[in-house]
Amino acid sequence: MIKRLIGLMAIVFAAVSLSACGVNNIPTKEENAKAKWSEVQVQYKRRADLIPQLVATVKGAAANERGILTDVINARSKATSVNIDASAIHDPAKFKQVQASQDGLSSALGRLMVIQERYPELKSNQGFTTLMAQLEGTANRISIAQRDYNEAAKDYNLALRTFPSIVWAKTLYSANKPMEYFTAPESASEAPKVDFSESSK
C-alpha cells in the first residue's frame, strides 16, 4: 500500500515537474500558430469570393480595361489553385509559392482599384463602392491575420531555440521544424501602375 502511494506520488510529481518545465510549450505554441494560419486562409478565401462580383460590376462600366480584368481573373485563379494548408508553414518553398500567388492577386487588385479614377460611373455605382469597401476591409483583415500569424510563428520558433524548451525540441519534438514568416513583397513600396494614355485603349 505504501509502495503504491509512493509510486502514485512519484507519477504526480513527475507530471507536475514536466508541466512546469515547459514540455507542453512547443505543441501549444504550434497549435496557436496553426490557428492563426487558419485565419489567414479564411481571409484569402473571403477575398477570392468577392472578386467575381467586383469584376462583373466593373465589366459594364469599364469595358476598355479588359487587360486589367483579365489579370485579376488570372491572378485569382492562380491564387486559389495553390494549396494553402498548414503544411506550408514549415516548408519554405511552398510558403513562398503561397505568398507569391497572393501577392500577385493583391497587385492585380491594386491596378483594378486605380481604374475608378478614369470612370466616374464606377465611383457612382453603389455596388462597386460596396465591393471596394469590402475588399479594402478584407485587405486590412489579411494584414492583421498575417501579422498575428507572424507573431505566433515567432513565439513557436523561439520555443524551438531557447532554454528550457530547446531541451524538449531536441528530444521529444526533434521532428518539429521552424515556421516561415510573411514578408512584404518587393512591390509593396510602389503604387499600382495603370496606363491611361490613348495608346493603351
Keywords:
mainly alpha, 70% helix, 201 residues, disordered C terminus, 7 helices
Describe the structure.
The chain has 201 residues and is mainly α. The protein has one domain. 70% of the residues lie in helices and 0% in strands. Helix 2 packs antiparallel against helix 3, helix 2 runs antiparallel to helix 6 and helix 3 runs antiparallel to helix 4.
Produce the secondary structure layout.
Elements lengths: L1 H19 L4 H37 L4 H16 L10 H23 L5 H4 L2 H36 L3 H6 L31
Summarize the structure.
The chain is 70% helix and 0% strand.
Q: How many E-type strands? A: 0
Helix-strand pattern: HHHHHHH
What low-confidence regions span 5 or more consecutive residues with pLDDT below 50? 191-201
Determine the N-to-C terminus distance. 92 Å
Strand content: under 5%
Give the % helix: over 70%
Radius of gyration: 24 Å
Q: Structural class of the secondary elements? A: mainly alpha
Largest sheet: none
The coarse overall form would be elongated
Number of domains: 1
